[in-house]
Amino acid sequence: MNSKSILCPIVALWCHPRSMSTAVERIMRERGDFTCFHEPFIYYYYVYLGKKPLPHFEIDPLQPTDFDAVLARLTDAAKSNPVFFKDMSYYVMPEIFTRDDVARRITHTFLIRDPRKSIVSYYKLDPTLELDEIGLESQWRHLNWVREITGTTPAVIEAEYIQRDPRTTVGKLWRHLDVAFSERAFEWSAEAVPEEWQQVAGWHETASARTRIVPDADVDDESVQSRFDETAAEAPQLRAYLAHHMPYYEKLKAYSLNADD
Known about the structure:
It contains eleven helices and five strands, in the order βαβααβαβααβααααα. It is an alpha/beta fold and 261 residues long.
């Protein structure tokens, strides 16, 4: 990528909550050749639209909040350097569906994780979580919109494969993006926490404390299901959330860069 070009690439990692997206963002930051942003559209969804109060969110009054202002922040940064940001698909809906130029200007990629894991993790931090905030349906709608507008299928990566083999899995994403492999990106200092993370520090305590990707403790299906069942016994609505979003997870998974592994 040519950092001197007038229009540098903008790469988006569209995810759902608790999908390990902050760890992937950290890898991209450690490359050193992207200007990175942490969930810039969170201000559009939770502040400008005022959908609901979000726990552990310290609002920075200096951040842009309306859709066009957030987008302008990203495109302005891309005038001088390639840009990477990670965000939630549900933050930008339905507004993004009126912006065909956004489909073409941004390189869209997607990250997914077994929703039995992500729902349990989200519930622990926000027991008031709502159906849309599980996020997988929005990701599926988002991916299909990009396909319809651009005629290309975005890359999908899976959190479980990243935890199992981060270099191989992220390396596949980098090849898809046509950027060089960067060994330096896979380890970092726990003291050098990105400043943007401070506004949502309560959501990223684990990611902030670690210095690399670590394997998932729940590796077998039985333990994953057991942990979900224990949480759903306390919050039965989570079963309906899982039933709603699981089909979208399976559809997204079919497009994974690891689908044939």
